[in-house]
Structure formats: structure tokens, C-alpha cells
């Protein structure tokens, strides 16, 4: 059942969402996540009058456990490179960043580093003293500046259950920021899941022939996010497809169905070179600057978004 | 069909294995993997007369792609901590280590480091110079010593298809080492997979109701590994269960069925505290030294294995 314009998302959807949340194990707040978030936002909420905008970036893929004591799970591929890069550019543009990321995905300021940064960024001189290679120093400085300036808070998730609950908490906590809030939903969220109750308690045994699994659809949270959790926030979602033929059509559908301000359409093969920003009025291709070997598509993308976000704020003053 | 003692693994199994390999995409040797491996083993093969033993450690979980252009996959949970720790202790015990690991899992000499080693191991002094925190220096030194001594080669995999093909290449390449070779099979290998041909080419669409999947069993490679790929190597496999009631029984079955020299039985909840080494004659519990806060179960485990491997070599001189 589709929500009518501006109305609540409808009883069928609300039931679906309630059923995911009620079936999920309660969120473990081992690191005082809600309190750390509140302190961070309070800091910028005061500053918001002076113009500090806050973006929540979701990044990396969610997992769907197949067993309650999780040995096996279905994962959605996403390195988290896009979210990490965007975080750096948003901080450069003056935003504070709530970074809601999959554990193990790329973190801001680490993407330019080698795979084994500690081992490869450090070297021994002739006297066996350890030194830092120059190529790694810049990222470390920028990271420490962002942390020292209270411009970055990192909140990790693993499963779809954790992700959905944390997104709700973050979106609701950002509601008081009004139009100064932005949600940049780059995480690769699972479309299908196995409800907690119907999961095997123990590791599925392999001795008994083929394994048949039925997964059900994860209800889309975007409608309720827009209408209830954070109705004034500037909302950007992402659409990834491997089949370019259906990509723009699906991006456009998502834009209208979930009332996003923008949908960023990207194709798996070319996503590091080009994306297409879909709004109600336009389809804007964004390319990386090919004349620069180290350029990325996130820099012009974030520039465009920052510009559209300013317009969105100014049009409603 | 079970192989009779010492015979070939039987035509049914061979067919199953042939079907996995023929359905899989060919291994990409982008980094000259076979050549690097050959050079590494040649080095120690000469040394083998003088007593250099070589262990292949498999580590981390394999993935099973659900789509050919892989967005979603089933993953087997494994941090790779055990394999990485064992690699360090084997090198300390004088072995050369072939480390066949899942990309992104823990690497030797990195487990004692913080999650973001580069950012957290480096600090700025008052003049904004970067320094290395003392707590991180030891690991870096040991890593460089292992690399400089040609005692560690790292070979990364992601999917079950890559893992199985690489394991075959490594085991066959180690065959000339005879009893000086050891296979320490700690990777969490998927039990079920979707044959490449029956996979969706594009991303599975979520609009059309629940998702039904049929996965088939991955044929066990251990029999053919023992009888053909590397018949004299000392073989250790691992059995992980979440249900302690069936653990030892399943470990014992695996020992006999695949003619392992040892099966290390571990339960998900307690695997960092205790494992039980199952051989034909004994069941030996191995604990970490609880009087030492930084101790692990891998140190006494590797000590026991090194001892049993020596006995295995000496009994057949």
C-alpha cells in the first residue's frame, strides 16, 4: 500500500516495519552510542544557528544472518569507499559528519593509504628506528584535525537489524536540526532478510542434502524516515544496478515513491567514473576529472549536493 | 560414496569436484601467484634438507556469490584471528608460512594493533611531527624480519571458487616437500554454493515478493587433497560448531572420513579460551594460559602441533 502524498506511510508498511523491529534482537549499546550521538549533535545544534550543517552518511553493506548464533550470513557488497570519501569532502565543506558505517568498511581518511597501512607506511632506517613514509602523513593530519574539531562521529553496525534501529535513532535525533540536517544514504542495505524467529538457532548442518531458503523483503524505511523520523532533513538515496537499462527508471521510481530530494544512480561497473544525480527536475551526470589521476567522482558529487542543500535551506527561510 | 582406505576418493566425489571447478570462473592470476609461490617453495625446498618445514595456513571465510556480477553473497564468519596468530608462532618455531587468506581478514603481526592502526599508532608531537607509539613498534619489527627472511608469503582469496582452486595449486606445489609439508586448514569454507551457471547474471530484483534459493553442497576436497594433491603432508583441519553436544562426534567423524592427522574442535562461544585436539588415539584439551592477560590458545596449540609434526617426520625416516 503506497502512502498518499504527505500522509503517513500507511498501515501495511507500518506493520512490516514493526515486524522487523520486534523480531530483531535489541540493539546492544555497549559503547554508549545514543549518548555519544546526543553530545555530538548538541554541540552542533547550538552552532547550527551560526550555520553548522550536519550530514548523516550511511556506508558499507548490511548483513542478513542465516543463523541466530551467526556463522553464516548474506552480505551486500560495498567497500564503503564512496561514503568515506564523501565524509572527507563534507567536512572540508564545513559540515559535521555522523558516519554510520559497516564494521570493516573503509573509514574517512584511510582510503588513500595502502592495504596494510601500519606495516607499509612505516619503515626502518639504518639504525632500526621506525619512521613514517611521507606519502601517509597528510591523511593522518587531516584525520586528527577532524577529530579534534569534533566534526566526525563514527557509529558502527553489522547486521540489517542493527542498521535499521540505528538509522531510526540517528534520524530522530537529527530532527531538531530541521533543514540543516542531511541524510546521505549510501549504505548497501539488504533487500531480503530471514525473520529472527524463523532462523536456525544453531549452525545449519551440511550433511542433509541441498539447502532451501526463503527470504522475505525488508520493508523500505525511506517513507517513514521522510514523514516521521526526520521530515525536514535533505534526503539523498542511492540506486545501484548491474544492468544499465533499468537503472535510471528505477532511480526515478525511488525518487517519487520515497520522496527523496535526490537519488544518485550508479552502475556497478562504472560507479567510480560516473554517477547520475536524479531530481524531480533534472538528471545531472557527474564525472570524475579524468585529467587528474587521483581524482574521484565523490568530490564533484559532494560539491553539487552542498549547493543543492544550500538552495533547499535558503528557499525556506 | 566413501573412499576405501588408501584408495582414490571415488568417482562420485571426483565428479562433484570436477563440476565445481568447471562451473567456476577461471582463477585470475593478476599478481603472478603461481610463480611467486614456486619461487618461495624452491627456496625452502633446498633448505628442506637442512630441516626447514613449510606450513600452508588457510584463514578467514570463503564467500558464495549469489549473482554473477557479484553484489550479494553468502559469507562464512571468520575473523582470521586464529590463522594469523598461528602464522606468527609457526614462523617463531622455524617454519616458512604460505598464508592463504580471505581478503580483509586478520594478517600476521597485525592482531595486536588497534582497529585503525595507522591513525591510532601514530601521534603528533608539539611541533606537528608524526611519531610512532611505542606499543605498535614490536609488531612492525617482527613483520619486517619475517618478510626479510623470506618466511612468509601471503596469497589472498575471496570466493569459494578461488579458494578451492588456490588450495589445489598450493597443495600440489608442496607435494615435493613430502613430510616436511603441513596443511593447517583453519579457513571457514562454505558448505553450500550456487553453481555458476544457475546464478542470476544481474542483481536480483526485490520487487517481486520473497526470494527462494536452492544451494547445493560443496564437495569435500579433503579426501582428494590427502590421496592425490599432497599425500605425505601433515594435515590438520578444524571443526567449528555452535552446539557443543555434537562437536566432538563431528570432529571424530571428520578425522576418520578425511584421514586427517588432527582435527581441532572448537565451539563458537569458547573458541578463544579452549580447543580440543582430536587424533586417532587421543582427545587433548588445549587452553590459553589464563594467568597471562595477553595469552592466546594458538600459542600452546601450535607448540603441540609442531611437536606432533616432528614425531610424524621422525617416525618415517
From TrEMBL, chains A, B:
GO terms (BP aspect): coenzyme A biosynthetic process
Highest taxon in the source lineage: Eukaryota
SUPFAM superfamilies per the UniProt record, alphabetical: CoaB-like
Residue span(s) of domain DNA/pantothenate metabolism flavoprotein C-terminal: 53-99, 168-273
GO MF terms held by the record: catalytic activity
PANTHER family membership: CORNICHON-RELATED (PTHR12290)
Family as reported in the entry's similarity comment: Belongs to the PPC synthetase family.
Descriptive protein name: DNA/pantothenate metabolism flavoprotein C-terminal domain-containing protein
Organism field: Linum trigynum
Amino acid at each position: 500500500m503506497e502512502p498518499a502524498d504527505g500522509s503517513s506511510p500507511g498501515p501495511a508498511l507500518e506493520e512490516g516495519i514493526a515486524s522487523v523491529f520486534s523480531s530483531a534482537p535489541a540493539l546492544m549499546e555497549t559503547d554508549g552510542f545514543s549518548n555519544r550521538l546526543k553530545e555530538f549533535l548538541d554541540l552542533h545544534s547550538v552552532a547550527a544557528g551560526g550555520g553548522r550543517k550536519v550530514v548523516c552518511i550511511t556506508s558499507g553493506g548490511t548483513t542478513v544472518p542465516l543463523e541466530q548464533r551467526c556463522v553464516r550470513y548474506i552480505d551486500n557488497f560495498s567497500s564503503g569507499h564512496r561514503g568515506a570519501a564523501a565524509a572527507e569532502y563534507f567536512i572540508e565543506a564545513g559540515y559535521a559528519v555522523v558516519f554510520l558505517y559497516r564494521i570493516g568498511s573503509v573509514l574517512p581518511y584511510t582510503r588513500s593509504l595502502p592495504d596494510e597501512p601500519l606495516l607499509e607506511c612505516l619503515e626502518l632506517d639504518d639504525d632500526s628506528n621506525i619512521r613514517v613514509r611521507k606519502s601517509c602523513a597528510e591523511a593522518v593530519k587531516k584525520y586528527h584535525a577532524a577529530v579534534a574539531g569534533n566534526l566526525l562521529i563514527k557509529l558502527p553496525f553489522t547486521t540489517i537489524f542493527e542498521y535499521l534501529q540505528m538509522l531510526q535513532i540517528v534520524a530522530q535525533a537529527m530532527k531538531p536540526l530541521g533543514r540543516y540536517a542531511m541524510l546521505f544514504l549510501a549504505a548497501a542495505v539488504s533487500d531480503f532478510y530471514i525473520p529472527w524467529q524463523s532462523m536456525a538457532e544453531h549452525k545449519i548442518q551440511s550433511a542433509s542434502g541441498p539447502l532451501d531458503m526463503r527470504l522475505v523483503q525488508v520493508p523500505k524505511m525511506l517513507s517513514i524516515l521522510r514523514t516521521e523520523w526526520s521530515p525536514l532533513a535533505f534526503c539523498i538515496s542511492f540506486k545501484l544496478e548491474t544492468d544499465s537499462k533499468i537503472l535510471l527508471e528505477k532511480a526515478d521510481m525511488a525518487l517519487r515513491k520515497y520522496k527523496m530530494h535526490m537519488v544518485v544512480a550508479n552502475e556497478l561497473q562504472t560507479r567510480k567514473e560516473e554517477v547520475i544525480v536524479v531530481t524531480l527536475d533534472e538528471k545531472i551526470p557527474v564525472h570524475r576529472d579524468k585529467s587528474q589521476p587521483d581524482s574521484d567522482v565523490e568530490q564533484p558529487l559532494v560539491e553539487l549536493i552542498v549547493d543543492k542543500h544550500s538552495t533547499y535551506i535558503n528557499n525556506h527561510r
